[in-house]
Amino acid sequence: MKAVLAVALDLFREASSRRWFLALGIGLTLLLVLAGLTLRIDVVDGALAATRLFGKVMHTDIRSVDVALRPVFRAAAYVIFYGGLAFGILACSDFAPSLLAPGRIEHLLALPVQRWQLLTGTFFGVLALALLGAAYGAGGFALLLAVKTGVWTFRPVLAGLIASVTFAAIYGGMLVASLFARSAALSAATGGFLFLTGIVAGYRERLDHFFEPGLGRSVFQAVTLLLPRVSTLADASADIAASAPIDFGALGSELAGLLIFGLAALAFGIWRFESQDF
Amino acid sequence: MLAIQAVGLTKVYTSFFGKTRQTALAGLDLAIPRGTAFGLIGLNGAGKTTFIKSILGVVRPTSGIVRALDGDPGDAAIRARIGYLPERLHLPGAWTPVAFLASVARLKGLENAGEAIRRHLARVGLEGDSGRRIGGFSKGMRQRLGLAAALLGAPDLLVLDEPTDGVDPLGRAEIRAILAEERARGATIFLNSHLLAETERICDRIGILARGKLVREGALDDLTGLATRYRARFAPGADAALLASVGFTARGEEGVYVCDADDPAALDAQLARARGTGALVIELRRDLRDLEEVLAEALGSPKAEGDAR
């Protein structure tokens, strides 16, 4: 376990020196600071009385502040979910190819680290990175609004965590692709493919009517059955952020499917990695 | 007690669809005792790097056995006792040497490695650069850092692939001194280098690899010369025909002859006979060839045939 943590820690250190992640950290911080300085919300007796952005009054109905914030949280959840996934796919596409770079992989494999530990450490390092990014962005946003309105909620953070877990499953696929061809472009393309097909898979029940009954529809159903339900999870995270009613049974099932997909990808990657020569 | 053992070691690389096959190692047999400084030499594509990777468990043999420190290289506990410097070590450019060595120490499972890291950085001459980013390092500095990483944890076996590549002459001397210290500590050194003069200076046993097989292996002295052959240089004016009649064979170079003598008394008698012809001895030493000649001879190159003639 120590070796897995050491590999994950190294990945963290490597990420902190990359421009992508520095830009993300600086960008999120600037956005939060900008919002903090320019957004003014007046709350009177728990009701949203007035909102000013850059000094300009935004006309809103007078209503309970927690109700008024729901669409804001919903929109933020979608931005964090889809934006975070797209960013993660691009920014993390080079981690596995870099791990497998000639001169680095031989050195790592010659150390007393098992191959599965290297791969698992990389996977969990990326998961931790995604969790940290989502927690910082969503947490910062929730904190900002809490300070300005007095409405304290951890729901946006929870929505961000769902986005991170979804990204980890997609990253499992990207990791496997890198083991077949050491290419950041292929890794990103795999991530992009899983992202887009995952959106389709989330609406599979609605979309399968577009296929004629028979082989075409069966193939569509079979393929989308295996994919993570990206859009369903995005909707669920938005519902959580907006305090909308949630079918926790369905969400649990989606998350379990995501876990199975991620672990299956990781297991397949380990099987491939164990038999590879470098 | 063997540091490295290979029995019938074969490695065949096959392409993804199994259409092309390339034999890198073809039934290699080798046994290297502990405490030895062993140099593996050979032409490009001879299988040297594949053999090194087999010792480290990075490459899995197609057939045969490879053992390191009397254990399986696939065993992490065995690899914990091996220090490895790859030919082209990929280093994280944004890290400092201290951060890199700390990472290696963590992966080697070394506790409280701070002091060891400082000591090894000083040993390889990088203590003044410990706060700099690796990205700004020269090739030689990168090699030194790679060597420091290999030395962490006082390994029993050091596997070094071109350790002095890109290092300046003074740096090479420093690395040789470090390797001598490691050997004195009891470590076995396995060296792969194209710099044959370096190999000659560091190693006491040599193996020559060609087409995946070991074609020569033995003590450096045995490979580079006969214990009973001497090389003498005579002052100008020596009569070649007379010297030939007393057992001295001309070597091609002006005034240089070789002779065979089983012991010092026989050598002295032979020199006396040479002096009897009127020749004046100005230099006498063992007739040793350099590794380049040995390699050429082992590989049957025209150079070796020319030298032999």
Give the low-confidence spans of chain A: none
What share of the residues of chain B lie within helices? Answer: 25-40%
Query: In the CATH hierarchy, what is the class of the largest domain in chain B?
Result: Alpha Beta
Overall structural class of chain A, as computed from helix and strand content, comes to alpha+beta
List the uncertain runs of chain B: 303-309
CATH evolutionary superfamily of the largest domain in chain B: P-loop containing nucleotide triphosphate hydrolases
Query: How many helical stretches of chain B?
Result: 12
Order of helices and strands of chain A: HHEEEEHHHHHHHHHH
Q: Total number of helical segments of chain A?
A: 12
Features:
heterodimer; A: 278 residues; alpha+beta; four-stranded antiparallel β-sheet; B: 309 residues; alpha/beta; Rossmann fold; Alpha-Beta Plaits; 2 domains; 29% strand; disordered C terminus
Blueprint (SSEs and pairs):
The complex is a heterodimer of chains A (278) and B (309).
Chain A: H1 2-16, H2 19-38, E1 39-44, E2 47-53, E3 56-58, E4 63-64, H3 65-91, H4 95-99, H5 105-109, H6 115-149, H7 155-180, H8 184-202, H9 204-207, H10 215-226, H11 230-241, H12 248-274
Antiparallel strand pairs in A: 1-2, 2-3, 2-4
Chain B: E1 2-14, E2 21-33, E3 37-42, H1 48-55, E4 63-68, H2 76-79, E5 82-85, H3 97-107, H4 114-123, H5 139-151, E6 157-161, H6 169-185, E7 188-192, H7 196-202, E8 205-210, E9 213-219, H8 220-224, E10 225-234, H9 240-245, E11 249-250, E12 256-260, H10 264-276, E13 281-288, H11 291-298, H12 302-308
Parallel strand pairs in B: 3-7, 3-8, 5-6, 6-7
Antiparallel strand pairs in B: 1-2, 1-4, 8-9, 10-12, 10-13, 11-12
Helix pairs in contact in B: 3-4, 4-5, 11-12
